[in-house]
Amino acid sequence: MGLLDKRKPQIREKRLNTLNAYFGDVSQLLNSMEEKEVSQRIRTFSQTSFDEIIYVLQVLNGIEDAGIVIHGPLGCSAVQLYMLSKYNRRKWIVTNLNEKDSILGSGEKLELAIRKLYKSCKPNVIFIVTTPVVAINNDDVLSPIIELENELNIKIVPIFSDGFKSKSSIFGGDVAFHAICKYLLTDKRKEKQSNLLNLISISESKKELDGIKNLLNEIGVKTNIVPRFSTLADIEIASQAAFSISIDKDNGDYFVKSLEEKFNIPFLSNLCPIGIKGTKDWLINIGRAFGLEKNAEVVADKYSDDLREYVNSNKLNGLRVYINLPTSKAFSILKLIKEFGGNLAGITVDHVDSVNEEELIYIQNLNENIKLHVADDQPFEEENILNKLNPDLYIGLSRECALAAKLGVPSIAVDNLDILGFSGVKNLIKAVDKAIINKKFVERLKNENKLFYKKNWYNKSINWYIKQEVK
């Protein structure tokens, strides 16, 4: 059965053996992957973590001419306020379901919300994001959609996000891409464009994407960036591309595989274009696919030569670095650290699965006795790790960096730092130098802050609450 045959995608735990709880040896995890017997882990205690609706909204908010209806109680739309700060979009509405609606049905409220959104914003496509309340009640979503599509002459796409079937929040990206590919990309007769590349992006900045686009233009490849900063027209063109590649291969895995299944568009699998070697390999791999390998090598060498001064003067050499980032980005940063002479103290990723097998082998071959920590926002475990390891530098997102800084570890938050491509190397190395030179601030924070948890927690093993699931 194909990826798009069902109403909803298969959960990642079944499709890719995804884990979102693990602490231990990489070799043990690789052995279980090779034997196709990856045992799921659960946490008997867990702090609040992301859910799939956040990932759904992250994908949809990138489509600039889309309207979004969040079909659920008011609280389910709270995350959209966070998205407003990042995307500055106004084309959304919430159905604001209450107890009465959950008993008697919510079709009328959904229909009213769609009409209001269409009248006020005139979007080119409307996405209906269902929430756990709608899933539990098994409300009829399709009937109002079919009726209003004909009346308003607009595409209305249901996104069936349950919020509880998968423990891995990145599954929300699969849910969104499943609907986009199933309901928006329907015309298989369009002629292919031989030099067109689908560049799948979800969270990258405009500046980063412009830089990557310019690099690809230099080697002779035309890019169609979706869904970030895209329109409905850009998404529909995706079926005409010669190849697809995702900047973050974890986030884009479902989309590129769906495009291959439905339109026979091959996809290229690479880590993020981060670091000198990482960006060169990424660029040359694309060039090779389009028959432009020589062009790609010339462009890559030109920009690589400009970075020699950063290689020679960087302060990463010999440092023990701890990384906590989304999976593909974490493994890409790791390779940059090794490229610049740094050492890996430890690593936390939000999930791990068969897509990451090559990177796990890379960590195993480092022979540095690194324990892999898989956790989606579990700071109590990470503080225990950092207390035990005491790294020289921490690279993560803002919320995690605040914790590391309070423990006295110089920290670099990369969520607002452009780190892709050759220019990203300069930005990251400058941030490293700045963090290492200016240690006084984190040292003061450490002196003025007490430990966040009880002392007996720091004496326990990190995986104290991680247990193998028994079926």
UniProtKB/TrEMBL annotation:
<dbReference type="Pfam" id="PF00148">
    <property type="entry name" value="Oxidored_nitro"/>
</dbReference>
<comment type="similarity">
    <text>Belongs to the NifD/NifK/NifE/NifN family.</text>
</comment>
<feature type="domain" description="Nitrogenase/oxidoreductase component 1">
    <location>
        <begin position="59"/>
        <end position="436"/>
    </location>
</feature>
<dbReference type="GO" id="GO:0016163">
    <property type="term" value="F:nitrogenase activity"/>
</dbReference>
<dbReference type="InterPro" id="IPR000510">
    <property type="entry name" value="Nase/OxRdtase_comp1"/>
</dbReference>
<keyword id="KW-0535">Nitrogen fixation</keyword>
<dbReference type="InterPro" id="IPR000318">
    <property type="entry name" value="Nase_comp1_CS"/>
</dbReference>
<protein>
    <submittedName>
        <fullName>Light-independent protochlorophyllide reductase subunit B</fullName>
        <ecNumber>1.3.7.7</ecNumber>
    </submittedName>
</protein>
<dbReference type="InterPro" id="IPR049939">
    <property type="entry name" value="NifE-like"/>
</dbReference>
<keyword id="KW-0560">Oxidoreductase</keyword>
